[in-house]
Amino acid sequence: MSHSRWKTVRERKLKDGFTEPDDVTEARQEIRLSMALAQAVYDRRAALGLTQRELAARAGLTQAKISRIEGSDTVPTLPLLTKLAKALDASLDIALDEDLAKVAFTPHHSDAA
Fold first, then answer.
1. Is residue 16 exposed (0-12), middle (13-18) or buried (19+ Cβ within 10 Å)?
2. Where are the beta strands (DSSP E) in the chain?
3. Of 30, 32, 68, 98, which has the fewest Cβ atoms less than 10 A away?
4. What is this structure's pTM?
5. 34: how many CB neighbours lie within 10 A of its CB?
């Protein structure tokens, strides 16, 4: 049997008319946003060839804080996001829709210098 045919329990329940409680839906959206941010920070840091420790030094944070952000263990404040964007020499772009969260860092300069 092809794995692409498998449905998650949630998908089957939704198909049968089940609706999630609002608090579960909110938590799911927060997790998606946190994961999207974590991936964006990791991708930009890797593109710059920085370690977590080097990024932390640039941003005035600890390596542990960078690790928690990249591990989706925390949702940073706006001032912290500003520090991250500056340290990553990029603009932070966030698009929030009902079922989709897109987070990306747009470099200020070409990385191939």
1. exposed
2. 90-96, 101-107
3. 98
4. 0.75
5. 19
